[in-house]
Write a structure and sequence with these properties.
about 450 residues; alpha/beta; Nonspecific Lipid-transfer Protein, Chain A; Rossmann fold; 4-stranded mixed β-sheet; Class I SAM-dependent methyltransferase; SAM-dependent_MTases_sf
Length: about 450
């Protein structure tokens, strides 16, 4: 990469901006910068150019000197990304070196240099209001039914047509299951994931399945159509419930699938032969994971199986010593919490369930997210028309950053299979994994 950079002492906005951010990053950045004055600085052959449209972008960063400030500037349109978004957030570690850098670790001379640059560029001023897409004050007790309903609505009730643009016809908002990274469509991989869940649950005709956090009904439809079960799907998203109900009717399965606008804590018509929870328990939270496990265990019949498919933390995302406002918490998953696998497994065991199998699908989610990013970028104009440029930018940044987080092992995802033992501890499980998968 050729490093055509401005001459030392250059006073253009772009040159000063690049110099300040490279001071924060403690070294050269593989990006090109364009200032509001039309000036450009950085490698001529960079794969991405960061465009600062106005000084307000700097004020956002100054008031929140981390990934939240950068995210606000991008979502608001004060800063734009021209080129490959993956090149910006992937390499090498641009976001890690700039957006997640604790400025207190800089030496005094560097702090003075950055502060002086921002002052000369006119970044000092009142705090700009956050973009409207950022969730405001959250009312009520965290993970109460009312607050959960409100924050889930913030994420999911943004328009079913928008989600369809990047999820595709499958309308499955969780990681697909790929047999090969280079072959197969997203729809085929999502179908394979749904069938994997059904086989792990050993679904067969006549059984009764509860699908917790049923989304747009894809799991419920697949289980009823291909495995002959009766399904109750529950969601607290009104838009998901409406579309899922319509999709069930269109599939001719209304006699076997019921979609409810209902919190899982209010389900009282057990027992069920099996329970699936796909991409839902991330909303439950550390304080409620025990209650979640207890409730689902109570709804299972003896020898009934539970499959919990959820993103998990690998290491703390925010430390207690240096807390930073998280972009994901403000814009994407308010109150969402990624728990380590050990916490989830312990909660199930304490609820009287026996954990029989866990499977990590980290690479599968990275592949899925890459496909979603491709779909969103391909349908960008329609996405902007449906939800506006700010929300479209929010999702693009979130999906791309998430793909890299899974690829680099910062977060992971597990399918945990548990069973409620019958009399004398009988699990009803075949002796080999292949047999209980139905292979």
């Amino acid at each position: 990469m050729s490093a055509t950079r401005p001459e030392p002492g250059s006073t253009t906005a772009a040159a000063r901006l690049l110099s300040a951010f490279e001071t924060i990053a403690d070294g050269p950045l593989p990006v090109r910068v364009r200032g509001w004055d039309g000036s450009v600085a950085g490698p001529a052959d960079a794969e991405v150019t960061v465009v600062f449209r106005n000084r307000r972008a700097l004020r956002r960063i100054l008031w929140s000197p981390n990934e939240l400030g950068l995210g606000r500037a991008y979502v608001a349109g004060d800063m734009e990304i021209d080129g490959d978004i993956f090149a910006l957030i992937d390499g090498p570690d641009v976001i890690e070196r700039v957006g997640r850098r604790d400025l207190r670790t800089l030496d005094r001379a560097s702090i003075r240099r950055v502060a002086s640059t921002f002052l000369r560029l006119g970044a000092v001023g009142l705090r700009p209001p956050p973009p409207a897409e950022e969730i405001g004050r959250r009312r009520g007790t965290k993970h109460s039914k009312a607050r959960d309903a409100a924050v889930v609505s913030h994420h999911y009730d943004v328009g079913n047509d928008f989600y369809r643009l990047f999820l595709g016809p499958s309308m499955v908002y969780s990681c697909a299951y790929w047999t090969d990274a280079d072959t197969g469509t997203l729809e085929q991989a999502q179908d394979a994931k749904l069938d994997l869940v059904c086989r792990k649950l050993h679904l067969s005709p006549g059984m009764r399945l509860l699908d917790v956090g049923c989304g747009w009904g894809s799991m419920a439809i697949h289980a009823a159509r291909h495995h002959g079960v009766s399904v109750v799907g529950v969601t607290i998203s009104r838009e998901q419930c409406e579309l899922a109900t319509a999709r069930v009717a269109e599939a001719g399965l209304s006699d076997r699938v019921q979609i409810r606008l209902q919190d899982y804590r209010d389900v009282d018509d057990g027992p069920y032969d099996a329970i699936s929870s796909i991409g839902m328990s991330e909303h439950v939270g550390e304080s409620r994971i025990g209650e979640y496990a207890d409730r689902l265990a109570d709804l299972l019949r003896p020898q009934g199986r539970l499959l919990n498919h959820a993103i998990a933390s690998v290491a703390p995302l925010v430390t207690e010593r240096h807390p930073k406002p998280a972009f994901v918490d403000r814009y994407i998953f308010p109150d969402g919490e990624l728990l380590p696998l050990s916490h989830v497994a312990a909660a199930f065991e304490q609820a009287g369930l026996e954990v029989r199998d866990t499977e990590a699908l980290r690479e599968h989610y990275a592949l899925t997210l890459r496909r979603w990013v491709h779909n969103l970028r391909t349908n960008w104009d329609e996405a902007v028309r449906l939800v506006g440029a700010a929300r479209a930018r929010t999702w693009l940044l979130y999906l791309a950053a998430s793909a890299l987080s899974f690829e680099r092992g910062r977060i992971t995802i597990h399918q945990v299979l548990a069973v409620r033992a019958g009399s004398a501890g009988a699990s009803g499980m075949p002796l080999t994994r292949g047999k209980w998968l139905g292979d």
